[in-house]
Description:
Strand order of the largest sheet: 1-2-3-4
Helix content: 10-25%
Amino acid sequence: MSRRTTRPGRPAAGARTPAVTAESPCPCGLPAGYAQCCGRLHAGAAAAPSCEALMRSRYAAFVVRDEAYLLRTWHPDTRPPAVDFDPAMRWVRLEVLETTEGSAFHTTGTVTFRAHYTDNGRPGSLHEKSRFVRHEGAWVYATAVFVD
């Protein structure tokens, strides 16, 4: 997901949204709780083992508004100076549609997904094909193509 730079006139985003706790179901859609799933990646206790795991954890980082994690997992060649969290937008569900390569045996991979949200209460979705690469041994988000 590539919500990139802060727009003028937007209020600064807080650290984490209180709606997700350590015991909450992980926003990425996998059956584990947040602390045992994406939360441990956000905290730096583990690294994403695949590009799909990184993509899921980045989606969860948008849900909990973890700017530090998003920037840390963004390739330095394409990383923005800040992440824009629109206060009216709430990410509500992730569908992973296709993953190509991106395992422990690869250096690149893609994940095609649809991220559902509400913006001022109006539903919408973002359909994207994200490209991931290994940088200094870790998976990072590189670029994206919007599908719709």
